[in-house]
Amino acid sequence: MSMTELEKAGIFGLGQPNDGFAQFFIGQSYLNPVVTQGIGIFNVTFEPGCRNNWHIHHAKSGGGQILLCTSGRGWYQAEGEEPVSLTPGKAVYIPPEVTHWHGAARDSWFAHLAIEVPGKEGSNEWLEPVDESQYNILP
């Protein structure tokens, strides 16, 4: 049985292939801007097994990111911490300067709202891909 776009991406829609950031992802992701004025809110959808590289949201003050899972099953992991399972309704606050990654479980589509926390002099630093052997041991 094929999943519908709504089942994959939740109520905010699949959007377009995330080609602008494809170099920082393993697998295919999709991006659908929800709000772009005042505060950035983006629906990001990951095909099964897709995840982004380790990365850091920098800011001189304020900043960071909130992930709010809207559909499917995925993972978030901060460097040096255990992975956290993400299911619909679960939220994670990622403080600025924390090295982390997030993405889909191997066997599930996954969508989350990525909410940019306002900050001064914010930027993203993209790092290495998530180690395949570490990812593959996740349930």
UniProtKB/TrEMBL annotation:
InterPro entries: Cupin_2, HNL-like_cupin. It comes from the Bacteria. Coiled coil: none annotated. Residues 44-107 form the Cupin type-2 domain. This is Cupin domain-containing protein.
